[in-house]
Design brief:
This protein is α/β, with parallel strands linked by helices. Helix content is 16%, strand content 28%. The longest helix is centred in the middle third of the chain and has 11 residues.
Length: 424
């Protein structure tokens, strides 16, 4: 009989609609991060660094790139005969078949997978956070408190607490109350969406709540376990943790990597972040290029000037081009003389000669002010921006655009130019 003390279930099916056109063709956990990584690399690397060798990855929205990236788990040493990494999409069943309709519903639909390992504990993770955490330490805490459920929490500023699920604890860390995005929070301990369940407690809750529509951990499972009188404890985490769910937080988290002393260090020997590495030549910087405070991926060629930016693998920045405070993803091309200020340019995009991005005043986006904000110009995957046009702030461009799409050669701040039908 196969037996694993703890297995991990990694929720990676989310669309990530607040990342706008960056997630129109790819699931949020597969979005590029830090030049050479994808967001899902961080929780996967945490698992293997914590000694967890059995991980189920639950996919749903646009899973192709995520599946290709994970493969059989070789980069994370998760290509095991027993356990390893398994991609778990929704599947057709006898009788009622449904998509994953909530975080807990997704886990419920994979009870048979979990049962096959006879685990003592199940670790539930999100696939869209940037952090390093030793889950083994959290498991020790769970055992020491004889808990049924442990919730990883971190202190947040009081004024931001209403954005999170908040836990109220006693002096021993036991959870007295759970508030889901409260208007008036009673504490500043925010749930990180990381849970350890004792297997029997998880199974019983999921079976009981199986008819609940859109069954969710924060809204349904945790309150159910609490009401039932089970032991819920809060495991306080004080390291770096970033939810990169908005364009602003995604841009910020990338930019923090190039601080003089980065709060989140990718270079630590003892806690490596693993990823699928393509076979690429080294990066090339021409004699006339200028590169200051940047991360530059393998296979990139830089002939222009790049300042305080994250450059993905295989990017070409031609002579005379200037890039500042921007994220340029894999295989994008910045043509001669283009000027890029505070932009996010997705994979395979092409920016034409002498085009200018991030110009003018910062005006709220007319159609999606909550998504396209923070003063960023966002260019979608495979998009083409023609030569000599200007693009303002809080903007989005998708598809192959031509000069006629830009009145007077300008896309004003706060506007969206959607030639690919990617802006929902």
């Amino acid at each position: 009989m196969i037996k694993k003390e703890m297995i991990a279930m990694l929720l990676a099916g989310g669309q990530g609609s607040r990342l706008g056109v960056l997630t129109s063709k790819v699931a949020k956990p597969a979005v590029a991060f830090g030049g050479k990584y994808r967001i899902i690399d961080f929780p996967l690397s945490n698992c293997i660094n914590s000694g967890i060798d059995t991980v189920g990855v639950l996919t749903q929205y646009q899973p192709l790139r995520l599946n290709t990236h994970i493969g059989i788990g070789i980069p994370w040493d998760l290509d095991k005969t027993v356990g390893g990494v398994t991609v778990l999409p929704p599947y057709e069943k006898v009788g009622k078949t449904e998509w994953y309709t909530g975080t807990a519903n997704a886990i419920y639909q994979n009870l048979a997978y979990m049962e096959s390992f006879h685990p003592d504990y199940v670790l539930i993770l999100s696939g869209d956070h940037i952090y390093k955490m030793d889950y083994e330490v959290m498991l020790d805490y769970h055992k020491a408190h004889n808990a049924d459920v442990s919730i990883a929490v971190m202190p947040v500023p009081r004024e931001e607490a209403s954005r999170f699920g908040i836990v109220v604890t006693d002096d021993n860390g036991r959870i007295l109350e759970f508030q889901e995005k409260p208007k008036e929070p009673k504490s500043n301990l925010a749930s990180m969406g990381i849970y350890i369940f004792s297997w029997e407690a998880l199974k019983e809750a999921l079976l009981t709540l199986s008819e609940q529509s859109n069954c969710d951990f924060g809204k349904h499972v945790i309150p159910y376990c609490h009401e039932k009188g089970e032991t819920l404890v809060a495991y306080e985490y004080n390291g770096y943790w970033k939810d990169v769910g908005t364009l602003g937080s995604y841009w910020e988290a990338n930019m923090e990597l190039i601080d003089i002393i980065p709060e989140f260090n990718l270079y630590e020997e003892f806690w490596k972040i693993y990823t699928k590495n393509d076979i690429l030549p080294p990066q090339y910087l021409s004699a006339d290029s200028v590169v200051e405070r940047c991360l530059v991926g393998d296979g990139s060629e830089i002939y222009g000037s790049v300042y305080s930016s994250i450059i993905g693998c295989g990017v070409v920045i031609e002579e005379g081009a200037v890039v500042r405070d921007s994220i340029i993803m894999q295989n994008a091309v910045i043509k001669k003389g283009a000027v890029i200020n505070k932009a996010i340019i997705a994979e395979q995009a092409v920016i034409g000669e002498n085009a200018e991005l991030g110009v003018g005043e910062e005006i709220p986006n007319r159609i999606k002010p909550a998504v396209y904000s923070f003063g960023l110009a966002v260019i979608g995957e495979n998009a083409v921006v023609p030569a000599n046009v200007k693009i303002g702030k809080n903007t989005a461009v998708t598809g192959v655009t031509v000069p006629e799409d830009y009145p007077d050669g300008v896309l004003q701040s706060g506007e969206i130019l959607d030639k690919a039908g990617d802006v929902q």
